[in-house]
Structures are given as C-alpha cells and as structure tokens.
Request: fold
Amino acid sequence: MYRDWKVPLPADVRVEYDVPASRLTTIGAGGRVAAVVSVESAALAEQVCSTLLQEGISLVVVGRGSNLLIADSGYDGVMVRFLASEPDIIHEGEVLDVSAGSRTDDVARCAVELGLAGLEFAAGLPGSVGGAVWGNAGGFGSDMSKVTESARILEPDGRVSWWEAAALGFGYRESALQHKPGILLRVRLRLPAGDRGQIRRRREAILEDRRNRFPDWRRHANAGCFFRNPPGLHAAVLIERAGARTRSKGGARVWERHVGFIVRERPGCTAADILSLGLQIAEDVRRHFGVDLLPEVRFLGDFGDLLPPRWRAWNSVKIIEPV
Ligand SMILES: Cc1cc2nc3c(=O)[nH]c(=O)nc-3n(C[C@H](O)[C@H](O)[C@H](O)COP(=O)(O)OP(=O)(O)OC[C@H]3O[C@@H](n4cnc5c(N)ncnc54)[C@H](O)[C@@H]3O)c2cc1C
Reply:
C-alpha cells in the first residue's frame, strides 16, 4: 500500500519499500519493513515526521537500530530512519548542540578533540545520539543523563520545543520519551573543559575494554546487552552463575566474554531464535535466583505469543500516532 503514497515529502528524501531488517539493525535478524524514510538532518527529520503525522500516518523513529529486534514477520508500517553520515555539531563553549541523528561515537570523538570531558563513556557506542538519549545509554560509570542539558522534541501534535533535562525524566536506561512519545531532533550536551591528554587516554582505555569484552557487531551481529541490570544486581553475573553461558538456539548463542550479549552467528538465525534464547536465559536466572530479568533490547513488529506481555509492554518500540 505504501508504494501508492501521495504524501508530499521533500524531493531529496529517500523512501524505500520492503527493506530487510539486515539493513536496518546491527543484529540483522527479522523480516522486512514496509516503508523506510531515511533522513540525515534534524530539519528534514522534523519536516518529514510532521508531514507524515499531519497526513494521518503513524510512524516509528529509529537511529542505527543497534538496540532493536524486528520480528520475523517484519513491520507493516512506516519507519523514519534518522541517522547522519556526518555529525552535525554546533560548539558553544562547554555546550555541544548536536543533531539527534549524529552518531554518538562521532560526537564523543569530537568532544575529545575539543578538550571537553564527560562523554568518554560513549566511546565506541554504536547508534545515534537520539537512540542514546531515548534509552539513556550508558556504561563505564556514566550515562546520557549526566551530560544532557536539554533536547529539542517534536510531539505527535506538531509542537516543537526544547525540553530541559528534568522533563526528559531520565532513569536507568529510561527516559520520559518511553512513556510520552516524541521525536528527538537535537540534543544539547554540557561537557566541562578538561585535560585533552587525560580525556583521550580515558577514551582509548574504554575502546580497548569494549574491544576485549564486547562482540564487534560487524563480525558477530548483536543488539548490545540483551538484558538490563535488575536493581542492585548485574544481569551478566546472574546469567553466568545460573549456568547459561553455553546456551544457544538456532544460530544464536551467548557471547562468552560478556554473557549479557546474544550474538547471531549464522545468517539463517531468526528473530524467534534470538528471543527464545533470551527467554531461556531469563528462565535459568528466575529458577536459580527468583529474579525476573527484563530486556534492554527493543522489539518491533508482531512476535505473537513468544513475546511475554510484560516484555511487550515494557520494551516495544513506541509507535508515534497522529493526534
Ligand atoms: C556492540 C554493541 C555495544 C553496545 N554497547 C552499549 C553500551 O555500552 N551501553 C548502552 O546503553 N547501550 C549499548 N548498546 C545498545 C545501543 O547501541 C545503544 O542503546 C544506542 O544508544 C541505541 O542507539 P540507536 O540509534 O541504534 O537506537 P535504535 O536501536 O535505532 O532505537 C532504540 C530506541 O530509540 C528510539 N529512537 C531512536 N532514535 C530516536 C529519535 N531520534 N527520536 C525518538 N526515538 C528514537 C527508537 O524508537 C527505539 O525505541 C550496544 C549495542 C551494540 C550493538
């Protein structure tokens, strides 16, 4: 149906149909997305999303798809992919005003060059700044809530405004946008000036640690840590102690150097294999410790009865509906 669209999108916007998940996510499994609109700049993201919503079309917005699992039956809707090949950064003293489509690692690298501290934790973090703020991405002792001053948001009714950090409602891997849908267009990061050499050394140490422990998604497709840490506990420690380190399903298996990751080792591996393995690991942990793990990965599309209602309610990608 989307091929017959009469939506007045700008001429330089790329629309593709029936796009396979392998082109949209780092884990690559799953089916096809009916229509994908790719935008590189915040101005185009705003124009395209407002137009679609005004035309009564629901949409989902994604960045690099590095925290995303698409169902094997795909997603019969519109995806706006907001990801820039070049970072768009306005530097004003200790503030970086960046497009939400900029890649987080590009911004983190730029901060080092400018001698600004605080974004080293995001060294090597795959994905866009929008995705990072939406999920309050973090690690290595920090997260996006510590550096985000405000964000420019398009709301489903067409309003565009800057939300201060308090309104962004950050929590552990959480932001207000998971409950009140909105599209991140730009983000202001406040990063204090520091010693460039020290900042660079910290960035390199974190990159090294990531290389040693985390699977490189280009060779071992994955969507980041599958589970969030339960309060006061480490998901990876629970998984290890529950004996789930050697678990596998279809072409999906636990990554031994960091058992929080599920990697997809074979092209035939389905989204259902990955989700089933996640469920098996969660069951191992529940049986051993009585702790219910919740996923960090986001789900898009219809997984049928395989996706437990709690996981669906908690972790489905938010569909932005016209008002
Ligand atoms: C190898 C590897 C290592 C990783 N390491 C970490 C880590 O250390 N810490 C960590 O927290 N995560 C990690 N991740 C997960 C992931 O990279 C981050 O969560 C990342 O910030 C997601 O960004 P994205 O652009 O890929 O988001 P996507 O996966 O594209 O989207 C994630 C969610 O954000 C929403 N979203 C994206 N952009 C926008 C926007 N502009 N407006 C509104 N909503 C939006 C989507 O709708 C979706 O619900 C890792 C992933 C991989 C593959």
Observations:
- The domain at 216-307 is CATH 3.90.78.10 (Uridine Diphospho-n-acetylenolpyruvylglucosamine Reductase; domain 1).
- The CA atoms of residues 86 and 275 lie 33 Å apart.
- The chain has a mean pLDDT of 96.
- The first strand starts at residue 14 and ends at 20.
